[in-house]
């Protein structure tokens, strides 16, 4: 009855398929198998529901509650006894989770890397779940910013997120010396009884390096099996760590037998509070630290020391609820078949590189969720009322007002599409210069422009904010690319913000807005990914900011744009060298051959001899690249793909009376590349061009309404052009 039991192999099923590792085919078949199991479970639940509906009255009363059954128990003997007896009628009496019962999950998360791990964990939970979920995230400021934006833009039905400030909890555990790589945050599970709401009775606590292979409701159902004073549900540790025999003079903290692993914990919070858990663990930690001096495995050492003194607190979970893949793991004794797996725990600092004879299979399961399209997890839970979400309601209202028969419906719809966004996908660390002159380069890109990043880094040493439009799988390709690049890994002042793909258009102005919004400097250089700035431009712009008093004037500083048709270019190191290349035909003014109007107002003839900044006037279709204060207007989201996305922004700057000033010793050069998918659509699709013209006219009308008489010149200029 929930007494500690030894780690023993599960009975293997004779007809279950055996695992053979290391092929892509297996990974694909695993995905198919997951869906098959999902369908089988759904059919089984339907049969059970029908059977109960036909059964006695007390069975019918449970009809609405029948949902998922806990397959494992903490008492392997009683489980085997039930099998031997063949008592299938007991099935309906096993603990169940009500259909719409909310499952509470607590996770401690700090920093950029842990935030990425949490997403994969959450995906695996969402994939299998049938119940509303309430995530309680104990997060530092970085993780909160990342995950709050992610969940807000993910908009998954029947999922609630609450944040608790991990930095405020530091004082509760900072007195405990800890050698574990998780640092101070690895001790915070100890204070959950104090941190989580006082009316929350129970919670599943998970490490960020967990992957679910089953419905989390099955684990939630185990709470019904707790008896007496059992308040902690834990799986036995699957290594010899606490036995103290891993190396000479190895001296672990005290533990009951092998001890328990705290990667997955069931906490009965109400009972723990009544038992004065806070006092219990503190006294134990103080006593043990007198001889141990520090923890080696963070909170796990203290949990085990408490359990050693109070073994009655533990309900031992079957080992498949926490299959531990550490270096010295004995986890393979825990499973004989794929169907036995429920939770995988990458509890080694090496993570996916850990040595394990089945690691290829586990890695493929993990990668399935890592690269899984998160948009597909926006599934409604039928029959379970969702809490009213004002953002979702506003979105539905805006979409309902659109005419689906409009030939430009897809263009208009994109303006309201909410794209899942993961800010600061990689580590970011930058403090702007104290003189308040710092400038961030802002750009957006998709996977086909990734090769430009290293070159830009070599030309621009200042901070960069990038919005990347990627699928989930592409985001992982980008991660591998970045981690394998010495140039990118040596830079911590680049903010990489992933905007996940959705819809048929490239949301260029949304991407620009995301990159603009998340800069930490007062000024930004609005560039494009295909341009290389001149060497030294960063320092030149910082000086120009002071010289032209950008802090107190509404100016947009123009960096003249040029282009080359050569893939291999000896980049000019000075204005004189650039002018020489211009004369020789190695360089051209940007879009000189196809769209002269876009940059003609820059007045390149004047720039050739200019030694001081000079002012130019706005003209129709002007789209220069500018340096501007961060409080400038956003880009208009109605323009997607190719056409008018920058023109509209420059027009709005002019309407707000920004002064356009050309910098005499600045330049940028556009590097050649294959035409984008969107420009190809623009050139080949007549309807695309018609819709762009319609959106342009509507934008100009909106400008007239918003800025009044002064904006009439934009209509006139358009008619004259």
Report what the structure shows.
The protein has 25 helices and 23 strands. It has 721 residues and is an alpha/beta fold. The protein has two domains: 103-377, Spore Coat Polysaccharide Biosynthesis Protein SpsA, Chain A; 421-716, Spore Coat Polysaccharide Biosynthesis Protein SpsA, Chain A. A nine-stranded mixed beta sheet has the order 11-14-13-12-15-21-17-22-20. The protein has a seven-stranded mixed beta sheet with strand order 3-2-1-4-7-6-8. It has a four-stranded mixed beta sheet with strand order 16-23-18-19. The radius of gyration is 30 Å and the shape is elongated.
User: What is the end-to-end distance?
Assistant: 84 Å
Query: Count of helical segments?
Result: 25
Helical/strand content category: alpha/beta
The main sheet comes to: 9 strands, mixed
Strand content: 5-15%
Would you state the CATH class of the largest domain? Alpha Beta
CATH topology of the largest domain: Spore Coat Polysaccharide Biosynthesis Protein SpsA, Chain A
Principal-axes shape call: elongated
Organism: Rhodinocichla rosea
Keywords: Glycoprotein, Glycosyltransferase, Golgi apparatus, Membrane, Multifunctional enzyme, Signal-anchor, Transferase, Transmembrane, Transmembrane helix
Membrane topology: Single-pass type II membrane protein
Pathway: Protein modification; protein glycosylation
List keywords for this structure.
721 residues, alpha/beta, Spore Coat Polysaccharide Biosynthesis Protein SpsA, Chain A, 2 domains, nine-stranded mixed sheet, seven-stranded mixed sheet, 25 helices, 37% helix, elongated, multifunctional enzyme
